[in-house]
Amino acid sequence: MPYINIKLAGELSIEQKREIAKEVSAVIDRVTGKPCRSCYIVFDEVRLLIGLKERKF
Predict the structure, then answer these.
(1) How do strand 3-9 and strand 49-50 relate by DSSP bridges?
(2) What is the dotted CATH code of the domain comprising 3-54?
(3) pTM for the whole structure
(4) Where are the domains of the chain?
(5) Backbone phi, then psi, for 47, in 5-degree steps?
(6) How far apart are CA 1 and CA 29, in angstroms?
(7) HSE-up of 43 (CA within 13 Å, CB side)?
(8) Contacts of 42 (CB under 8 A, 6+ apart)
(9) Exposed e or buried b per residue across 5-16, where buried means at least 16 C-beta atoms within 10 angstroms of its C-beta
(10) How many CB atoms lie within 10 A of CB 25?
(11) What does the DSSP assignment read for 1-57?
C-alpha cells in the first residue's frame, strides 16, 4: 500500500484535495502498477510564521 504525505503551505478546499488525491493516485497506479484504491494519502497543511506574524498566501 503506497503511503503518500503531501505538505501544503496554506489551506485548500476539500474539492481541491480530492482532485489532487485523484491525480496523485492515478500517477502511482500508472507508474507502479499499484491500484488507486490501495493508496493512503495524507495532507498536512502547514502555516508559515515569520517572527510573530502569520504569512498569508
Answers:
(1) unpaired
(2) 3.30.429.10
(3) 0.72
(4) 3-54
(5) -100, 125
(6) 11
(7) 18
(8) 3, 4, 5, 6
(9) eeeeeeeeeeee
(10) 20
(11) --EEEEEEES---HHHHHHHHHHHHHHHHHHH---GGG-EEEEEEE--EETTEEPP-
Q: Read off the amino acid at residue 26.
A: A
Cα angle vertex 9, ends 22, 32, to 5°? Answer: 35
Residue-level pLDDT, tens digit, the chain, 57 residues:
889 999 988 889 999 999 999 999 999 999 988 887 888 999 998 877 665 555 555
C-alpha cell at 44: 498536512
